[in-house]
Amino acid sequence: MEPFRIHILGCGSALPTLKHNASSQVVDIRGKLFMVDCGEGTQVQLRRSRVSFTRVQAVFISHLHGDHCLGLIGMISTFGMLGRTATLHVYAPCEFERMLQMQMDMFCKGLEFEVVFHAVDTTQHQVIYEDKSLTVASIPLEHRVPCCGFLFREKPLLPHIRRDMIDCYQIPISQINNIKNGADWTTEEGELVKNSRLTYPAAAPRSYAYCSDTRYIPTLHQLVKGVDVLYHESTYDSEHEARAKLYYHSTAAQAAQVALDAGVGKLLLGHYSARYDDESVILREAQKIFPNSFLTAEEMIFDVK
């Protein structure tokens, strides 16, 4: 099976600490790399994680708080110094376009690659990126500024050919694509061979939802129903639920409730408040509601399956 992995580059919140970096992840889907958020220090974390700079083809910015976007201009500048020529696509709230262009005019003159900006409507759940193997959709969230998450979903694969049956019935290679797309086969003797005998199902499509800074949304589970892996911010434990509500963040228990209601396979916790020297209190709280919960940490890799 082709890889579908989440590389954690940073899982801290806005206040810098010596333990955690600002928010950033790389999603590796079948060898295609997509960055989600790009806080300060992201490019150093890319080096530490041994993730190739040159293979990042798009960056998705959830919202315009510095711990989620201030690392982007430095990374673009580094791309230029490394001789990048491939287009970089940036998906972000529309307000970011003017600021990004000003930064590029100041710090990134003479780039040999194009940076293409795509404005994201953070109030809509809609597909914002698509290629032959996957889609990325926005997930409206509720924060102090316009904010959205991102849902990465593989497209269904065609069924696999049963080579033994192809050889048995001497089916020509020219017909294999037709059979993958559902066609039956009729032999020279007039025997009908059903498609189900000639193929076996491909693996089920995999999915990953990234829910950045947000207060608890009771209906959020409807948009991430059944995903294999859910990342949901868990800035506080329940002792600080009032603070979470005030600053439009979530507790670990609230993140776990979304995971439980959505019936996801695995919950990843992150965006920890700097007040926690030990995030085990966050993990314990989440696992009481949703046992398959995990703390994220820099340089960790999670498989989506």
From TrEMBL:
Function: Zinc phosphodiesterase, which displays some tRNA 3'-processing endonuclease activity. Probably involved in tRNA maturation, by removing a 3'-trailer from precursor tRNA.
Species, as recorded: Hoylesella buccalis ATCC 35310
Residue sites binding Zn(2+) 1 per the record: H63, H65, H143, D213
Record's keyword annotation contains Hydrolase: yes
Family annotation (PANTHER family): ZINC PHOSPHODIESTERASE ELAC PROTEIN 1
Cofactor-binding details, from the entry: Binds 2 Zn(2+) ions.
This protein's name: Ribonuclease Z
Reaction(s) the record says it catalyses: Endonucleolytic cleavage of RNA, removing extra 3' nucleotides from tRNA precursor, generating 3' termini of tRNAs. A 3'-hydroxy group is left at the tRNA terminus and a 5'-phosphoryl group is left at the trailer molecule
GO molecular function, one term: 3'-tRNA processing endoribonuclease activity
A Pfam family: Anti-Pycsar_Apyc1
EC number in record: 3.1.26.11
Active site annotation, chain numbering: D67
Cofactors (names): Zn(2+)
Binding site residues for Zn(2+) 2: D67, H68, D213, H271
Gene3D superfamilies tied to this protein: Ribonuclease Z/Hydroxyacylglutathione hydrolase-like
Alphabetical UniProt keywords: Endonuclease, Hydrolase, Metal-binding, Nuclease, tRNA processing, Zinc
Self-association and partners: Homodimer.
HAMAP family attached to this UniProt entry: RNase_Z_BN
Family: Belongs to the RNase Z family.
Protein's gene: rnz
